[in-house]
Specification:
The structure is a single chain. By secondary structure, the protein is of the alpha/beta class. About 40% of the residues lie in helices and about 20% in strands. The strands form three sheets. A six-stranded mixed beta sheet has the order 7-6-5-8-9-10, with helices on both faces. It has a two-stranded antiparallel ribbon with strand order 1-4. Strands 2-3 form a two-stranded antiparallel sheet. The protein starts with a helix and ends in a 9-residue tail after the last helix.
Amino acid sequence: MNKAEMERTIAKDLLSIKAVFFRPDEPFTWASGIKSPVYCDNRLTLTAPKVRNDVENGLAELINAYYPDAEVLMGTSTAGIAHAAITGHIMGLPMGYVRSGAKDHGRQNQIEGRLEKGQKVVVVEDLISTGGSCIEVVNVLREAGADVLGIVSIFTYGMQKGIDRLKEANVQNVSLTSFDVIAKTAAEEGYIKPEDVQRLIAFRNNPSDESWIK
């Protein structure tokens, strides 16, 4: 499957199980107070076997295509852990995960699973918005001596802040699909009105500007 076909297939999958749900006329409110026309919960892919199969095989395809030298997969905590485990199983690769903070007991690990210095690692993430959390994971792995090849994720918003942060951290992300593709597919499939697409893109371009709300 080529990249464009994959992006559209995953977009249709996520919309079909409401892992991505658009509601431009009744916005959701984020913890930060920002009004959002989109709700995302990629954990729902885990309870939808066909979609899960598409996602994990897609992640394996991306890793083979973009990071063929990968030796270990490391999931982000907690959303990336299951995807790293299943994709690692498909590829026959070891996996682990990075905690959001070091444990306060036992060996006080922040990285779970065996990781040797110099090993080539791919970080598995479910969703990238501003990029902060996955870059923290990359930094923890680099500090432990890993050679981080890059990130794979289910989808990215494509927010400028996230793009800039990834570039600054010198780390590549490759996603199965993108916010723009999902928005366009949602209009084509009748989940939203065609005229809503530009409103969604306006939100993506500047989430703090609420002029997209009618």
